[in-house]
What we know:
- The protein is built from one helix and no strands.
- The chain has a domain of 28 residues.
- It is mainly alpha-helical and 65 residues long.
- The termini are far apart.
- 80% of the residues lie in helices and 0% in strands.
Amino acid sequence: MTSQEEKAELLFKRKQEQLADGQTATAEYEQRARAEREKTARLRALRLARDAKLRPNPEVRRIGN
């Protein structure tokens, strides 16, 4: 191989590694984002359930009398 071919091969390998690293990073980011959304939904459901228990029953309002 000539020096120019070796440089091209190294550049190609480096680009392939960057592509693989980018795909891995994207997958990790999406996994963390999904986990955060699930946790947020779970905590919201727990908060709403707690608030519903603490809130007194609304009074029935009669209209017209």
